[in-house]
User: What shape does this take?
Amino acid sequence: MEPLTAGAIAIGTIVATKVLEKTTEKGTEILLDKAGKFLVTLKKHSPSTVVAIEKAPEQPLDYGKAVLEVESAAKANSEVAVAAQELATAAETNPPSNLAEILREIKKAVEKSQKSYPSNFIQNIEKAINAAQTQNIDQRGSTFNI
Assistant: This one.
């Protein structure tokens, strides 16, 4: 998965898991662990992005800007890329119930943005939205396959 999509899914997962922090399900524990590791890693390279992500959803997050900042950090540092990929993979296996909704918000923000994104990015986000919806309805192992 390319860094832009992995970053978008990572950000969406962090925002989505904030609702799950009080649950004790095994999948939730794994997501929270991966989200924590991603934030610690990203904070070393882009502390202002982490501060903005941690304030969401209470304070609106500029998803388009955050996704680009995560992509930039991931391209510049393999540790960030690996952490984003691991979080995206964990979300693929056990997506938070509201991940599809958050990914729709990210997609909408990206479409409204004046910045250019690779043409396959929107397609990849749509695949991730569909997979997150499908898995929340049917947990038999569908994956994002991006």
About this structure: The two ends are 6 Å apart (CA to CA).
